[in-house]
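The records we work with from here on pair a chain with its fold. These numbers are not coordinates but entries in a learned vocabulary of local backbone shapes. To see the layout at work, look at the sequence and tokens printed below.

. . .
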Amino acid sequence: MQSLGPLTLVIFLVPGIALLMALRLFYRKEVVTSANQARLAISLAAWVMIFVAVFGAGIGTLSFLSTIYLPMTLIAILMLIDRFRRSEHHALLNTLAFSAEKGIPLQETARAFAQEHAGDAGVRAHCLAERLEAGATLSEATRVARLRLSTPMRLAVNMSDVLTLRGLTLKSQLNWGNESDAALRTIISRLVYLCVSFVALQVIVIFVMLKILPVFQKMFEEFGLILPAMTQSLVTFSKWMVMEGWLFAIPLLLLGLAAAFVGIVFYSGIYSFPVVPGSQARSRNAMLPDVMRFMDWLFFLRMFFWRYDASLVLRSLSLLLQQHQPLPQALILLANVYPRPNVRRRLTRAAVEVEQGRDWKQALRKQWLVGPAELAVLAAAERAGNLPWALDEMGESLMRRLTYRMMVVYQFVYPALLLSFGLFVGYFAIAMMLPLFALIQGLT
């Protein structure tokens, strides 16, 4: 009897699913804590069995091709999990905002949320409740619980710690930037799909050039035939890659690996950042995942995405002015609570210039936090006495224009990348099929 090889690992799928069903039955309303290690062990064993079963099925079905579609599947699953986790954590923050507005203690709301969600969201809500009961601020509790929050959500949480109307602050800020973030996630997911597909194509091309093309050359030499022109160009390209092309390919490969490493570091939040110096500053050495911080390293991205931070700054200043905060103090407060360090430094410089007597609009303009059009509108609004309304409207307009420009660039760039990718695939497929047709014609 012939062995099934890695396919035999599929048998682990049944006990893995059975263990997950048992968890649902016996630990339906309990949250994983340090005192409940049995559920953690059973859950870990179940998911390990399911992973081993899926891994074995993937390797056993298509063998070599599994090295291509398994990483693609894993990346897609991780992206889906991340989106699902973010939606859960956003729901938790919305629940806390509603509770703060109604005067309900946040720790009680977090515990109630943990009882209703027995999975990862319940674990994080339980940790959040414990930190709040220990006297931590909401921003510190969310960092310890490692909630996946976007920049506007972190800004809302940080500002709620220093303002009196916590419920109003959270409720009004949580939905800032939702359209822009959704558009950016769509663009990134499509680009990741193209990148992974291109890497898979590279693996296939290397395999064909090393294994298939030499066989074609030898067959045509034995029969005294000439390879088609397209196939000869592909052979020439493969020889160039072996002799000289690798000198250009290795730097690109190293650059890609470095970009992947930096992206993982920024996404996972495994790094610390200091708060800006000031009388209201607090130590913030925490791990916060935020892909948007990658813009702090690349200047051309900052030039394109400056409206994202400028929108949040203007709308936050509007909220602070509505709560009767003087403008210089509002800038200092915002400089100490803004989530991204680069923007905090720019806000600090603007606040220092305002304290030295410079006009606040020009100070923000110098730090790329206000555009020329917004500068004129804010000057007119300040003279008319409706500055908070103008700040909020200009911030919303900046975010809307950023979303529009991102979608315009995406509509031009993505079809061009897709077309170039398709042309390369078509060229490669035709170059590999023509030798078969030429061989058949030559032997008849």
Q: What stands out?
A: The radius of gyration is 28 Å. The mean pLDDT is 77. The chain has 16 helices and no strands. Residues 4-25+34-149 form one domain.
